[in-house]
Amino acid sequence: MKPYFSFQWHITDECDQRCKHCYIYSAGKHDCLQSMAWMQIRETFYNCLDFCKVYGRTPYFYITGGDPILHPNFWKLLKLLQGHGIRFSILGNPFHLNEQVCRELKEYGCEKYQLSLDGLRQTHDWFRKPGSFDCTLEKIPCINKAGIRSVIMTTVSKANCKEMAGIIDAAVGAGVNVFAFARYVPGGGELDSGMTAREYREVLALCDQKFKEYEAKGCQTYFNKKDHLWTLYEYENGEFRIPEDAKEGMIYGGCNCGNCHLTILPSGEIYACRRVAQSRVGNVLEDRIADVWVTGMEQYREYEKFSKCARCKLLAWCRGCPAVAKGTCGDFYGEDPQCWATEESGLIAKAR
125: closest CA among 160, 151, 90, 158? Predict the structure, then answer.
């Protein structure tokens, strides 16, 4: 197990946008938006700290929503985190940011503020709302000026994969500190997500070329290769090698689900991963997380059950995205539809 543990904490469903790939709005589940009351926030926070104490983990919080800044007790929560010396980042929108707000976020200890770019102007504003693209880019310097690391995250799908080069250029041009992307998880709504494995490998190759071009120019943006299929791509290119001292049965990287991450919703529901449909394992207002870790989360740590990855040499470092597999075929341990590794490549052992 890794020494840290990250809690993706959705304190409210309230949001200024109605994004087409949002878990709340794409499925039509927005008739009753929820937010945690202050006492529930306190109870949740100390439940998380109890878990970390029991299992010797260092907590890290990703405070999100909805847009967390819309919660009436948002600043009160940041004060609570600061008082306990807990590190945290914010995943939010750009609309309520200004220099004063960013300075206050920094004073409370905010390390990173993550925004989204899901296409160039027309595509992004179609995903989210008119004016969102320009507002996002305008707020990056504001975040940077306060001493907070600005992050741009892109959710890549068939609808925007041809725009990735332009998205990278826009983010770097705005001065973003960190750029990353993850794949869309099928879950309903208006979005066609069906990239083939070959198409997705082409996306990685394009992004890899762009990243290296910028790095050669001395660009200060950190390109976070978040998707675990980067491991497969770099293994093929010789940039990743299986360590000679790797121990059989050990998990060194790949998906953090069941290892060092969980999600808490405004209702208190605990999800193994927010991107994995029907991965509820408990409720933080009713259950002790330290107990749920054993009774509910262990089902996401059975690595030998992966139908394809369990036969792959990169099992301990990759495993693709189980959320995408679940959203596509209904099986967390099913085959990642964008993984291009084959038996012919020598990576995958023949099925018995």
Answer: 160
b (16+ CB within 10 A) / e for 85-118: ebebbbbbbbbebeeebbeebbebbbebbbbbbb
Question: Is the alpha carbon torsion for 50, 56, 58, 60 positive or negative?
Answer: negative
Instruction: Give CA–CA dist 339/139, Å, rounded.
Output: 35
CA 298, CA 59: separation in Å to the nearest integer? 20
- CA pair distance 226, 210, nearest whole angstrom: 16
Q: Is the pTM of this model over 0.90?
A: yes
Output the furthest CA–CA distance in the chain (Å, rounded): 62
Q: Could you read off the pLDDT of 142-190 as tens digits, one per residue? A: 999 999 999 999 999 998 999 999 999 999 999 999 999 999 988 654 4
The long-range contacts involving 97-104, CB below 8 angstroms and separated by at least 24 positions, are 97/139, 97/142, 97/143, 98/142, 99/142, 99/145, 99/146, 101/69, 102/142, 102/143, 102/145, 102/146, 102/148, 103/146, 104/75
Contact of 75 with 63, CB cutoff 8 Å = no
Q: Which tokens belong to 290?
A: 């330290």
Q: Which residue has the tokens 């809690």?
A: 7
> What pLDDT was estimated at residue 23?
61
